[in-house]
Amino acid sequence: MMERILNYIGGELIAPESKEYMDNYDPSTGLVYSLLPDSDERDIRKAVAVADKAFAAWSSLAVEKRSAILQRIADLIDRDLDAFALAESIDNGKPVSLAKSLDIPRASANLRFFASGAIHFSSDANITGKEAINYTLQTPLGVAGCISPWNLPLYLFTWKIAPALAAGCTVVAKPSELSPMTAYLFSKLCIEAGLPKGVLNVVHGLGSKAGQALVEHPEVKAISFTGGTVTGKKIASIAAPMFKKISLELGGKNPNIIFADCNFDQAVATSIQSSFSNQGEICLCGSRIFVERILYDKFVSEFVKQVEKLSVGDPLEPSTNLGALISQSHLNKVLGYIELAKQEGGKILTGGTQVKVPGRCEGGYFVEPTVIAGLDHRCTTNQEEIFGPVVTVMPFETEEEAIRLANSTPYGLSATLWTENLKRAHRVSAEVKSGIIWVNCWLFRDLRTPFGGMKQSGVGREGGWDALKFFTDTKNICIRL
Ligand code: NDP
């Protein structure tokens, strides 16, 4: 019988109230390989009720004890690294090698980071001369709602729940229905690690049903969301009038700016990664490559040469660079953008078509890594997030023009700069309107640093103290001396 994913509510793995299940596809074969709960507001109500009940004991547990349980879960993830990586590759279509080297290790790192961070979290005190002492009391909010996307399923799921739990909140989480398996395996580890019942609850199902019910529930004090900008807008429109705390990590259309004085080999090699890692399904991928005119031809020729060496294929093969896109509809969306790019006057330098992988993956959703030139920066292809293995290349003449082009979309998540000129690196970083700027590197993360976007890429900052603070109420206490 096909495996059935279950909800994790009140410490138990249980069926949804509706008893209805949805198909869960393996994107590399196009076949259904498991079933997941089609949960609704009844499951959310149940989960919030048990989370609310568990809150008093969890929030008053010594922080060292909370931390030790989270560390134990991290140890169990490390123990089960291979099983998690395999499950994530099948569930999501990404190369198993990437899941094993990036996604799963980062999931346990998230837990460890916030587990130890909570122990070192301290409150501020301000001494107002000889007249008063002000101190800040930070208390856990209550039940937090965490909604995560499909592209880095366990990585982003743990990035949200770990600070919430470490800060003393209880959680109801809703992973994406497109890649639910690793959150399910994670639920099992929580039982094994002895996480008290009701502290974390995982409700699987559709965003429009289970996700929205979570956002609407009056007892959920905060919503931490990572996903698309359109969904983020909808969530904000529900949560803001209820005065909930919201953290929104949304889409990006990130510039990758290459100056002629860059370290050429590094810029090319890292641009391959920043364009096509995880099939381009990372919000931080650089999808618009701007190259200084005098380097443009050389860069584009070498870049395309290296893109053509990437192998698209079975994600379970260790040599595969790009696996399958998440779903048939996402495949259609990406192919649709490639067609649109052609209509907009773009020239496909390499790629541009669906790939038929022979054998077990012949029904999978594969696309060639695609590089497009000749488009104006204002066209739809260069304005909307494609979230697939598609990048555009454009020349620029001056530093000012590079900044203007970089800032020419409604998004502002991340940017990458390649230059050996230190002054220019500082100047351009200050002018590019993105929440994260990488100079001569990409996706290099220090979990203490604030993470989040400007403009339509999001509201709020995750990471470090910002994340722990988000899940607490802040109170100032003024004592008159
Ligand atoms: P979606 O916005 O479609 O979904 C994200 C999550 O929200 C899913 O769990 C989804 O459930 C749920 N959801 C959908 N509708 C609602 C609703 N009305 N109320 C509550 N929850 C809802 O994004 P994707 O899963 O497609 O993820 C890709 C997007 O995420 C990209 O745009 C990408 O840029 C962005 N992203 C941003 C990151 C960042 O840090 N800024 C990091 C990674 C991704 P369901 O799947 O069932 O629809």
Question: What would you say this structure looks like, in words?
Answer:
This protein has 481 residues and is an alpha/beta fold. It has 2 domains: 3-250 and 457-480, Aldehyde Dehydrogenase, Chain A, domain 1; 254-446, Aldehyde Dehydrogenase, Chain A, domain 2 (3-Layer(aba) Sandwich), CATH 3.40.309. It contains 14 helices and 25 strands. The chain has helices spanning 41-60, 63-79, 81-92, 96-120, 153-167, 181-193, 207-216, 229-239, 264-276, 293-307, 328-343, 399-406, 422-431, 464-470; strands spanning 3-4, 7-9, 12-14, 21-26, 31-37, 125-128, 132-140, 143-147, 170-174, 200-202, 220-226, 245-249, 254-258, 286-292, 347-350, 354-355, 366-367, 370-373, 390-396, 411-412, 414-418, 436-439, 454-455, 458-459, 472-480. It has a 7-stranded mixed beta sheet with strand order 15-18-19-14-13-21-22, sandwiched between helices. A hairpin with a 2-residue loop joins strand 2 and strand 3 (12-14). The longest helix is centred in the first third of the chain and has 25 residues, at 96-120. The mean pLDDT is 98.
Structure in a nutshell:
The chain contains 14 helices and 25 strands. The protein has 481 residues and is of the alpha/beta class.
